[in-house]
Amino acid sequence: MPEADLLSGPGVAIVLAEPGAGKSALLASLAARFGTTPVKASIFERTRAPCIVVDAFDEIARIDPAGLHRTMKELRHTGADRTILSSRSGEWSDAETRLLHDLMGIEPILARLIPFDQDEQALLFLHRHPDASFGDFLSDAARHDLTHLLGNPEFLNLFADAFVQAGGRFTERHEIFSDAVRYLARETNRSVTTRDAPTTEQRIAWADEVFARLLLSGSDGVAMADVAEGPTFPRLADLGLPDQRLPSILDTRLFRPAAGADRHEPVHRIVAEHCAARALVQRIDDPANTFTVKQCLSIVAPNGATRDDLRGLLGWMAALGSQNVQDAAIDVDPYAVLSNGDPSRLSIRSRHRLLEALTKLEADDPFFRRVDRWRSFSATAFFSPDIVDAIRTVIVRETGGDLRALLLELFIELPCGHPASSRT
Fold first, then answer.
1. Phi, psi dihedral angles at 52 (to 5 degrees)
2. Which residues have a Cβ under 8 Å from the Cβ of 176 and sit 6 or more positions away?
3. pLDDT at 352 exceeding the cut of 50
4. What's the whole-number average pLDDT of the chain?
5. Looking at the domain that runs over 7-112, which CATH code has it been given?
6. Domain residue spans in the chain?
7. What are the C-alpha distances in Å from 43 to residues 60, 63, 137, 234, 418?
8. Percent with pLDDT over 90 in the chain
9. b/e string for 225-253 if b means 16 or more Cβ within 10 A?
10. Which domain of life does the UniProt lineage start with (predicted)?
11. What is the band of 127 on the pLDDT scale with cuts at 50, 70, 90?
12. pLDDT at 151 over 70
């Protein structure tokens, strides 16, 4: 729907999109037009205003499972003519839409963000890196099967940073996120002294550990003062990393100021998930460490069901972890492994295991993609010649569920000349 429809007339609108698609930026823009500011759903309190704009509505359930219903009731009593919410598409279901309708007494409008086209991508790229070549960037992104992800502005920013960090040419595909993180962690203020300062790699290692603790605990960020501490903002000093130089990670672009004084949050969820997964698999795969994949998954997927807010983390754990971690992640949530992280990093054994797990998942839950069905993602490098026969077996069976359509959809995105497309 056009953006103007979100601004005209009374009602309730829900903006749905994948992580990094620009939900928060859109809500900030919409709120400014109404002369107000967006508020995080996790700290929303009843207020009287003609327009209410609430960001990250999906976060409520992870903080307080009963809070979703309660917050919706609070929205009903605001007296607002226009209410605009946002949520991750993968964490919003038809049940929430019906509940919102029942409580608000009005049919909500569902709005989905359209990915950036190539002209818009060029504008964003050149705004961020005016001295770099968008044409060279696009050509190198195509070489690594990344162009399908560039419509997501946060992915575009990350890949652009990685491209610049790597000197104008991408390294291996799985290193692109690491290059972007190194770029964000690098000190860019020449007036800041580097004497006795931690190295970039030390800051990254600390940030990885902090992100892991925040995600597993369901926290939004860290507080630097007692008065700023809250249920989702623990004190940085209480996270179990005793080095006195730890606060230096907040001087990097891996963090940004959060709502409220002395609070900081990850620059973006995508960055936090990648970094946290790296910290967790390093612990799991370290023979000297007693932390096991079973212990980790008891938090990520209690009782065998992945927490909605940690599906991205699980996908990255599979991409970065050993065979043991890959097997465990696939068994818990095969769709999360395929649709998050970098499935091209999976071993051939894991790719076969993933297809078998997806087949079983569809048998139990034919429409396992739910509202995530409209989302697009890239998994072209997953389709290697070694698994073509297994994929063909799945595709020729018409089950009426999501799996066949999903695989065909991903095959459409294969570049010309891809060895898997030439064999199917």
1. -120, 130
2. 144, 146, 158, 159, 162, 170
3. yes
4. 85
5. 3.40.50.300
6. 7-112, 118-171, 271-423
7. 9, 11, 40, 15, 48
8. 35
9. eeebbbebbbebeebeeeeeebebbbebe
10. Bacteria
11. very high
12. yes
